[in-house]
Specification:
CATH topology of the largest domain: DNA polymerase, domain 1
Strand content: 5-15%
Number of helices: 8
CATH superfamily of the largest domain: [2Fe-2S]-binding domain
Bound molecules: FE2/S2 (inorganic) cluster
Oligomer: single chain
CATH class of the largest domain: Mainly Alpha
Helix content: 40-55%
Structural class: alpha+beta
Largest sheet: 5 strands, mixed
Shape: elongated
CATH architecture of the largest domain: Orthogonal Bundle
Order of helices and strands: HHEEHEEEHHHHH
Radius of gyration: 23 Å
Amino acid sequence: MDQTHDINRTRRDVLITGALSATAAVLPAAGQAQALADAGAAGVSTPVPVTSKVALRVNGQRVELDVDTRTTLLDLLREHMHLTGTKKGCDQGQCGACTVIADGRRINSCLSLAVMHEGADVTTIEGLGQPGKLHPMQAAFIKHDGYQCGYCTPGQICSAVAVLDEVRRGIPSHASADLSVRPLLSAAEIRERMSGNICRCGAYSNIVDAITEVAEGKA
Ligand code: FES
Ligand code: FES
């Protein structure tokens, strides 16, 4: 076999496939069809989406969906289930707007594939409380003005709820002075533990007040 030809063809295939994926997002349907036909004529096999069933519980409700295996948990919640309370900020794990609680742990749902959560128990902001029956953390955020535009707020609240759980279970943070004793929820602890949740409006001090009030059992 002519290995040089083989290598060139492989590189050419990769370039064509890359160009196709780059244009797929902007081409109208007819354009995509033409591009796929061109690829076929060039002998290039185009990637076919692989779908898989995923079954999980979201806010106490069992759901089973057939999704592209590349679907993130965030997109499953927002695009497939229309639970738009969970926000997409950076879509790359830097802002915390997409924070949800999965099996008791807070995660950035934009960084996690939906198929990784088979059988999981996921709680979003919609599952924490409802109008007229708010979760204490939601009520405290309102009372202390822990938001302005509100875009980061669902992620902040899910994170804050998980922070209280982490402290209750004695899990230390980078700000904990002594790793062998149960951490006290000081302002420094709250700020450290909430540091993955960015608020562009800068509502940080009010968020700390809200979390402190719930932690002290006053909310
Ligand atoms: Fe997930 Fe920013 S949208 S961390
Ligand atoms: Fe606007 Fe936090 S309230 S980004």
